[in-house]
Amino acid sequence: MPAWSRGPEGTVPGVVPVELLVARTDTYAVLVGGLLVYPTGFDFDLAVRRRPGRPREYRDHHERSWDDHLRLEVRFADGRAADNDFRRWPRTSGDQAPDPPLLYQSTVGDDGGHVWLWGLPPPGPLTFACQWPARQIPPSQAELDAGLILEAAERARTLWPGEAPP
Amino acid sequence: MSASQPPELPEEPSEVEHGRPAWVEPPADVVPGVVPVELVLARTPQRAIGLTGIRAYPTGFGCTIHLRLREVVPGEQSNFGAFNMFGDGVDPAGEFADYFLRFGVGFADGRKATNLDHRRDLDEVRAPDPPTLRLVRWEGYDLLSWEVDVWVWGLPPPGPLALVCEWPARGIPESRVELDAGLVLEAAARAMPIWPDQIPP
Question: Using CB atoms, which residue from A19, A35, A54 is nearest to B32?
Fold first, then answer.
Protein backbone atom coordinates (compact mmCIF):
# COMPACT_ATOMS: atom_id res chain seq x y z
CA MET A 1 0.00 0.00 0.00
CA PRO A 2 1.28 3.52 -0.71
CA ALA A 3 2.89 5.33 2.21
CA TRP A 4 0.23 8.03 2.22
CA SER A 5 -2.69 5.66 2.61
CA ARG A 6 -2.05 4.59 6.20
CA GLY A 7 0.45 4.78 9.04
CA PRO A 8 3.80 3.04 8.50
CA GLU A 9 3.42 -0.68 9.23
CA GLY A 10 6.53 -1.03 11.37
CA THR A 11 5.53 1.66 13.84
CA VAL A 12 3.50 1.74 17.03
CA PRO A 13 1.79 5.14 17.21
CA GLY A 14 1.78 7.77 19.94
CA VAL A 15 -1.50 8.50 21.70
CA VAL A 16 -3.30 11.81 22.16
CA PRO A 17 -5.35 11.31 25.34
CA VAL A 18 -8.30 13.39 24.18
CA GLU A 19 -11.90 12.67 23.26
CA LEU A 20 -13.56 15.61 21.54
CA LEU A 21 -17.30 16.20 21.56
CA VAL A 22 -17.60 17.80 18.12
CA ALA A 23 -21.38 18.01 17.85
CA ARG A 24 -24.36 17.30 20.04
CA THR A 25 -28.06 17.55 19.33
CA ASP A 26 -30.93 16.26 21.35
CA THR A 27 -30.61 12.91 19.56
CA TYR A 28 -27.06 12.59 18.23
CA ALA A 29 -23.51 13.28 19.31
CA VAL A 30 -20.37 13.19 17.18
CA LEU A 31 -17.09 12.33 18.88
CA VAL A 32 -13.54 12.34 17.67
CA GLY A 33 -11.25 10.14 19.74
CA GLY A 34 -8.74 7.34 19.70
CA LEU A 35 -6.16 9.66 18.14
CA LEU A 36 -3.11 7.59 17.19
CA VAL A 37 -0.23 9.50 15.69
CA TYR A 38 2.51 8.36 13.29
CA PRO A 39 5.35 10.43 11.87
CA THR A 40 3.36 10.77 8.63
CA GLY A 41 -0.17 11.42 9.87
CA PHE A 42 -2.78 10.28 12.34
CA ASP A 43 -5.69 7.90 12.77
CA PHE A 44 -8.86 8.57 14.69
CA ASP A 45 -12.33 7.25 15.39
CA LEU A 46 -15.27 9.29 14.18
CA ALA A 47 -18.11 8.08 16.37
CA VAL A 48 -21.77 8.96 15.89
CA ARG A 49 -23.63 8.19 19.10
CA ARG A 50 -27.39 8.04 19.26
CA ARG A 51 -29.01 8.92 22.53
CA PRO A 52 -30.35 5.73 24.14
CA GLY A 53 -34.07 5.36 23.73
CA ARG A 54 -34.21 7.49 20.58
CA PRO A 55 -35.51 5.86 17.43
CA ARG A 56 -33.11 4.60 14.82
CA GLU A 57 -33.65 5.99 11.33
CA TYR A 58 -33.39 3.39 8.64
CA ARG A 59 -32.47 4.41 5.14
CA ASP A 60 -31.74 2.50 2.04
CA HIS A 61 -28.01 2.83 1.50
CA HIS A 62 -28.43 2.67 -2.27
CA GLU A 63 -30.65 5.70 -2.33
CA ARG A 64 -28.35 7.86 -0.33
CA SER A 65 -26.93 11.02 -1.73
CA TRP A 66 -23.82 12.64 -0.37
CA ASP A 67 -26.06 14.93 1.68
CA ASP A 68 -27.15 11.91 3.69
CA HIS A 69 -23.66 11.33 5.04
CA LEU A 70 -21.89 12.83 7.96
CA ARG A 71 -19.51 15.40 6.56
CA LEU A 72 -16.22 15.89 8.30
CA GLU A 73 -13.53 18.46 7.68
CA VAL A 74 -10.18 18.77 9.43
CA ARG A 75 -8.58 22.22 9.25
CA PHE A 76 -4.98 23.11 9.98
CA ALA A 77 -3.92 26.43 11.52
CA ASP A 78 -2.30 27.46 8.22
CA GLY A 79 -5.61 27.26 6.38
CA ARG A 80 -5.09 23.89 4.70
CA ALA A 81 -8.00 21.50 5.10
CA ALA A 82 -9.16 18.02 4.14
CA ASP A 83 -12.62 16.48 4.18
CA ASN A 84 -14.27 13.09 3.82
CA ASP A 85 -15.91 13.75 0.48
CA PHE A 86 -14.73 10.67 -1.40
CA ARG A 87 -15.47 12.40 -4.70
CA ARG A 88 -12.42 14.53 -4.09
CA TRP A 89 -10.10 11.59 -3.59
CA PRO A 90 -7.08 12.02 -5.83
CA ARG A 91 -6.70 9.67 -8.76
CA THR A 92 -2.98 9.37 -8.29
CA SER A 93 -1.02 6.26 -8.89
CA GLY A 94 0.30 4.52 -5.82
CA ASP A 95 3.76 5.95 -6.25
CA GLN A 96 2.73 9.52 -6.51
CA ALA A 97 1.89 10.93 -3.10
CA PRO A 98 -0.83 13.56 -3.02
CA ASP A 99 -0.25 16.83 -1.21
CA PRO A 100 -1.13 16.56 2.46
CA PRO A 101 -3.47 16.89 4.18
CA LEU A 102 -5.57 14.11 2.76
CA LEU A 103 -8.44 12.57 4.68
CA TYR A 104 -9.48 8.99 4.07
CA GLN A 105 -12.45 7.55 5.91
CA SER A 106 -11.93 3.82 5.66
CA THR A 107 -15.24 2.77 7.13
CA VAL A 108 -18.47 4.71 6.67
CA GLY A 109 -21.68 3.95 8.46
CA ASP A 110 -24.46 5.29 10.60
CA ASP A 111 -22.19 4.90 13.60
CA GLY A 112 -19.38 6.93 12.02
CA GLY A 113 -16.17 5.34 10.90
CA HIS A 114 -12.43 5.26 11.09
CA VAL A 115 -10.31 8.01 9.60
CA TRP A 116 -6.71 8.31 8.44
CA LEU A 117 -5.33 11.78 7.90
CA TRP A 118 -2.17 11.91 5.81
CA GLY A 119 0.00 14.80 6.93
CA LEU A 120 0.81 16.32 10.31
CA PRO A 121 -0.61 19.72 11.24
CA PRO A 122 1.53 22.78 11.93
CA PRO A 123 1.48 24.15 15.50
CA GLY A 124 -1.68 26.00 16.41
CA PRO A 125 -5.32 25.03 16.62
CA LEU A 126 -6.45 21.91 14.78
CA THR A 127 -10.16 22.06 13.99
CA PHE A 128 -12.55 19.14 13.53
CA ALA A 129 -15.77 20.34 11.88
CA CYS A 130 -18.81 18.27 11.01
CA GLN A 131 -22.39 18.51 9.88
CA TRP A 132 -25.07 16.04 8.90
CA PRO A 133 -28.06 17.78 7.35
CA ALA A 134 -30.10 14.59 7.04
CA ARG A 135 -29.83 14.05 10.77
CA GLN A 136 -30.32 17.70 11.70
CA ILE A 137 -26.79 18.01 12.99
CA PRO A 138 -25.87 21.63 12.25
CA PRO A 139 -22.33 22.77 11.38
CA SER A 140 -20.37 22.17 14.59
CA GLN A 141 -16.72 22.10 15.48
CA ALA A 142 -14.16 21.43 18.19
CA GLU A 143 -10.52 22.39 18.43
CA LEU A 144 -7.43 20.60 19.62
CA ASP A 145 -3.95 21.99 20.21
CA ALA A 146 -1.94 20.56 17.31
CA GLY A 147 1.06 20.49 19.66
CA LEU A 148 -0.47 17.38 21.27
CA ILE A 149 -0.44 15.66 17.88
CA LEU A 150 3.14 16.69 17.18
CA GLU A 151 4.32 15.48 20.61
CA ALA A 152 2.59 12.13 20.08
CA ALA A 153 4.26 11.82 16.66
CA GLU A 154 7.62 12.17 18.42
CA ARG A 155 6.69 9.28 20.71
CA ALA A 156 5.72 6.91 17.89
CA ARG A 157 8.10 3.97 17.99
CA THR A 158 9.77 2.21 15.12
CA LEU A 159 9.66 -1.51 15.83
CA TRP A 160 12.65 -2.73 13.87
CA PRO A 161 14.89 0.32 13.48
CA GLY A 162 17.76 0.00 11.10
CA GLU A 163 17.70 -3.79 11.00
CA ALA A 164 17.63 -5.69 7.80
CA PRO A 165 14.80 -8.22 7.81
CA PRO A 166 16.03 -11.63 8.99
CA MET B 1 -55.57 20.24 -8.04
CA SER B 2 -55.72 18.91 -4.56
CA ALA B 3 -57.85 15.96 -5.70
CA SER B 4 -54.81 14.50 -7.45
CA GLN B 5 -52.76 14.46 -4.25
CA PRO B 6 -52.40 11.01 -2.78
CA PRO B 7 -53.72 10.64 0.70
CA GLU B 8 -51.12 11.09 3.37
CA LEU B 9 -50.03 7.75 4.69
CA PRO B 10 -49.52 7.33 8.39
CA GLU B 11 -45.83 7.21 9.27
CA GLU B 12 -44.48 3.81 10.02
CA PRO B 13 -43.55 3.52 13.64
CA SER B 14 -39.78 3.74 13.98
CA GLU B 15 -37.96 1.21 16.01
CA VAL B 16 -36.84 2.41 19.39
CA GLU B 17 -33.28 1.42 20.05
CA HIS B 18 -32.92 0.00 23.50
CA GLY B 19 -29.19 -0.44 23.24
CA ARG B 20 -27.19 -3.59 23.49
CA PRO B 21 -26.30 -5.17 26.81
CA ALA B 22 -23.56 -3.32 28.69
CA TRP B 23 -21.06 -6.16 28.27
CA VAL B 24 -21.28 -6.07 24.47
CA GLU B 25 -19.86 -2.64 23.73
CA PRO B 26 -18.99 0.69 25.39
CA PRO B 27 -21.94 2.83 26.47
CA ALA B 28 -23.20 5.12 23.69
CA ASP B 29 -23.96 8.08 25.91
CA VAL B 30 -20.59 8.58 27.62
CA VAL B 31 -17.38 10.36 26.58
CA PRO B 32 -14.58 8.16 27.95
CA GLY B 33 -11.56 9.25 29.92
CA VAL B 34 -8.28 8.30 28.26
CA VAL B 35 -5.12 6.71 29.67
CA PRO B 36 -2.36 7.47 27.16
CA VAL B 37 -0.59 4.11 27.25
CA GLU B 38 1.79 3.32 24.38
CA LEU B 39 3.07 -0.20 24.90
CA VAL B 40 4.88 -2.82 22.90
CA LEU B 41 3.62 -6.03 24.50
CA ALA B 42 5.77 -8.38 22.47
CA ARG B 43 8.35 -8.19 19.71
CA THR B 44 10.20 -10.84 17.77
CA PRO B 45 12.41 -10.38 14.70
CA GLN B 46 9.24 -10.85 12.59
CA ARG B 47 6.26 -9.74 14.63
CA ALA B 48 5.18 -7.20 17.19
CA ILE B 49 2.09 -6.61 19.26
CA GLY B 50 1.43 -3.11 20.56
CA LEU B 51 -1.31 -1.73 22.77
CA THR B 52 -2.37 1.90 22.94
CA GLY B 53 -4.95 4.32 24.23
CA ILE B 54 -7.07 2.92 27.05
CA ARG B 55 -10.54 4.52 26.90
CA ALA B 56 -12.21 4.17 30.30
CA TYR B 57 -15.94 4.27 31.04
CA PRO B 58 -17.81 3.79 34.32
CA THR B 59 -18.58 0.21 33.22
CA GLY B 60 -15.33 -0.92 31.65
CA PHE B 61 -12.53 0.03 29.29
CA GLY B 62 -11.35 -0.38 25.73
CA CYS B 63 -7.99 -0.18 23.97
CA THR B 64 -6.41 -0.70 20.56
CA ILE B 65 -4.14 -3.65 19.85
CA HIS B 66 -1.66 -3.23 17.00
CA LEU B 67 -0.60 -6.37 15.18
CA ARG B 68 2.48 -5.96 13.04
CA LEU B 69 4.27 -8.33 10.71
CA ARG B 70 7.65 -7.18 9.45
CA GLU B 71 7.39 -8.86 6.08
CA VAL B 72 5.22 -11.44 4.45
CA VAL B 73 6.76 -14.88 4.75
CA PRO B 74 5.91 -16.93 1.65
CA GLY B 75 3.97 -20.05 2.45
CA GLU B 76 3.40 -19.16 6.07
CA GLN B 77 -0.10 -18.75 7.38
CA SER B 78 0.64 -15.46 9.05
CA ASN B 79 -2.81 -14.01 9.15
CA PHE B 80 -3.44 -12.12 12.34
CA GLY B 81 -7.11 -12.54 11.48
CA ALA B 82 -6.92 -15.75 13.45
CA PHE B 83 -7.47 -13.44 16.37
CA ASN B 84 -11.08 -13.09 15.28
CA MET B 85 -11.91 -16.72 14.89
CA PHE B 86 -12.66 -17.76 18.42
CA GLY B 87 -16.17 -18.88 18.88
CA ASP B 88 -16.71 -19.83 15.26
CA GLY B 89 -16.80 -23.49 16.07
CA VAL B 90 -13.11 -23.55 16.87
CA ASP B 91 -12.01 -25.01 20.14
CA PRO B 92 -9.24 -22.75 21.39
CA ALA B 93 -7.93 -25.54 23.58
CA GLY B 94 -7.98 -28.04 20.75
CA GLU B 95 -5.72 -29.16 17.96
CA PHE B 96 -4.97 -25.71 16.59
CA ALA B 97 -4.67 -23.92 19.92
CA ASP B 98 -1.08 -22.87 19.39
CA TYR B 99 -1.94 -21.16 16.14
CA PHE B 100 -4.11 -18.53 17.76
CA LEU B 101 -2.88 -15.26 19.07
CA ARG B 102 -4.06 -15.11 22.66
CA PHE B 103 -4.80 -11.87 24.44
CA GLY B 104 -6.22 -11.18 27.85
CA VAL B 105 -6.41 -8.93 30.87
CA GLY B 106 -5.83 -9.94 34.48
CA PHE B 107 -7.12 -8.13 37.56
CA ALA B 108 -5.39 -7.88 40.93
CA ASP B 109 -8.10 -10.04 42.55
CA GLY B 110 -7.35 -12.93 40.21
CA ARG B 111 -10.22 -12.45 37.77
CA LYS B 112 -9.37 -12.37 34.10
CA ALA B 113 -10.90 -12.11 30.64
CA THR B 114 -9.35 -13.42 27.44
CA ASN B 115 -10.14 -14.01 23.80
CA LEU B 116 -10.14 -17.71 24.63
CA ASP B 117 -13.31 -17.35 26.65
CA HIS B 118 -16.49 -18.94 25.46
CA ARG B 119 -18.20 -16.61 23.00
CA ARG B 120 -21.66 -15.60 24.08
CA ASP B 121 -24.73 -14.82 22.08
CA LEU B 122 -25.69 -11.18 22.22
CA ASP B 123 -29.22 -12.07 23.22
CA GLU B 124 -28.15 -14.24 26.09
CA VAL B 125 -30.66 -13.42 28.78
CA ARG B 126 -28.38 -13.55 31.75
CA ALA B 127 -25.44 -11.17 31.62
CA PRO B 128 -22.08 -12.86 32.15
CA ASP B 129 -20.01 -12.07 35.20
CA PRO B 130 -17.46 -9.32 34.59
CA PRO B 131 -14.85 -9.09 33.33
CA THR B 132 -15.56 -10.09 29.74
CA LEU B 133 -13.50 -9.25 26.66
CA ARG B 134 -14.94 -8.65 23.22
CA LEU B 135 -13.57 -7.49 19.90
CA VAL B 136 -15.43 -4.42 18.73
CA ARG B 137 -13.47 -3.39 15.63
CA TRP B 138 -10.71 -4.79 13.49
CA GLU B 139 -9.21 -3.28 10.41
CA GLY B 140 -6.37 -4.19 8.11
CA TYR B 141 -5.72 -4.46 4.40
CA ASP B 142 -2.89 -6.92 4.22
CA LEU B 143 -0.91 -9.16 6.50
CA LEU B 144 1.47 -6.47 7.68
CA SER B 145 -0.67 -4.26 9.84
CA TRP B 146 -3.90 -4.85 11.74
CA GLU B 147 -5.66 -2.81 14.39
CA VAL B 148 -8.04 -4.49 16.80
CA ASP B 149 -10.20 -2.66 19.32
CA VAL B 150 -11.31 -4.62 22.34
CA TRP B 151 -13.90 -3.83 25.00
CA VAL B 152 -13.43 -5.12 28.53
CA TRP B 153 -16.65 -5.01 30.48
CA GLY B 154 -15.91 -4.51 34.16
CA LEU B 155 -13.41 -2.15 35.77
CA PRO B 156 -10.37 -3.58 37.56
CA PRO B 157 -9.98 -3.26 41.32
CA PRO B 158 -7.02 -1.17 42.57
CA GLY B 159 -3.68 -2.87 42.13
CA PRO B 160 -1.83 -4.16 39.10
CA LEU B 161 -3.73 -4.61 35.84
CA ALA B 162 -2.03 -7.19 33.62
CA LEU B 163 -2.18 -7.07 29.80
CA VAL B 164 -1.03 -10.38 28.43
CA CYS B 165 -0.48 -11.91 25.01
CA GLU B 166 0.97 -15.16 23.72
CA TRP B 167 1.30 -16.81 20.31
CA PRO B 168 3.04 -20.17 20.61
CA ALA B 169 3.11 -21.04 16.92
CA ARG B 170 4.80 -17.75 16.04
CA GLY B 171 7.47 -17.71 18.71
CA ILE B 172 5.80 -15.22 21.03
CA PRO B 173 5.98 -16.57 24.58
CA GLU B 174 3.57 -15.34 27.23
CA SER B 175 4.35 -11.63 27.48
CA ARG B 176 2.81 -9.37 30.05
CA VAL B 177 2.84 -5.72 30.97
CA GLU B 178 1.36 -4.50 34.23
CA LEU B 179 -0.25 -1.11 34.67
CA ASP B 180 -1.50 0.57 37.80
CA ALA B 181 -5.26 -0.03 37.65
CA GLY B 182 -5.64 3.30 39.44
CA LEU B 183 -4.88 5.02 36.12
CA VAL B 184 -7.87 3.29 34.54
CA LEU B 185 -10.09 4.03 37.53
CA GLU B 186 -9.11 7.71 37.49
CA ALA B 187 -9.83 7.90 33.76
CA ALA B 188 -13.20 6.21 34.29
CA ALA B 189 -13.98 8.88 36.87
CA ARG B 190 -13.20 11.53 34.23
CA ALA B 191 -15.70 10.02 31.77
CA MET B 192 -18.61 12.36 31.16
CA PRO B 193 -22.23 11.81 30.16
CA ILE B 194 -23.02 13.24 26.73
CA TRP B 195 -26.58 14.10 27.71
CA PRO B 196 -26.34 15.00 31.41
CA ASP B 197 -30.04 15.73 31.66
CA GLN B 198 -30.87 12.18 30.63
CA ILE B 199 -32.98 10.15 32.99
CA PRO B 200 -31.27 6.82 33.50
CA PRO B 201 -33.30 3.87 32.17
Answer: A19
pLDDT digits (tens, 9 = 90+) for A132-142: 998 999 999 99
* Chain B residue at shortest CA distance from A113: B137
- Which of A94-98, B91-95, B126-130, B193-197 is predicted with the least confidence, judged by mean pLDDT? B91-95
Q: Is A151 on the interface with B (CB under 8 A)?
A: no
In a domain, A91, yes or no: yes
Identity of the residue in B45, B52, B147 whose CB atom sits nearest the CB atom of A166: B45
The DSSP symbol for B8 reads P
Minimum CA–CA partner of B53 in chain A: A15
Query: Nearest CA to CA, how far is B5 from chain A (Å)?
Result: 24
Which domains does chain B carry?
25-191 (2.60.40.1640)
Residue A166 belongs to some domain of the structure = no
Query: Can the peptide bond before residue B21 be classed as cis, meaning omega within 30 degrees of 0?
Result: no
Q: How many domains does chain A have?
A: 1
CATH code of the domain covering residue A37? 2.60.40
Inter-chain touch B139–A21, beta carbons under 8 Å: no
What is the domain extent for residue A152?
7-52+67-157
CB-based contact, A7 to chain B, within 8 Å: yes
- Strand pairing report for A71-75 and A125-132: antiparallel
* pTM attached to this predicted model: 0.87
Residues 6+ apart with CB under 8 A from B100: B82, B83, B85, B86, B90, B92, B115, B116, B167
The answer to whether residue A132 is domain-embedded is yes
Candidate from A19-33, B33-47, B83-97, B149-163 with smallest mean pLDDT: B83-97
For residues B54 and A15, what is the distance between their CA atoms, to the nearest angstrom?
10
User: Does residue A57 lie within any of the structural domains?
Assistant: no
| A12–B142 CB contact, under 8 Å | no
Q: Are B105 and B133 in contact (CB under 8 A)?
A: yes
What ipTM was reported for this prediction? Answer: 0.88
Q: With an 8 Å Cβ cutoff, are A29 and B194 in contact? A: yes
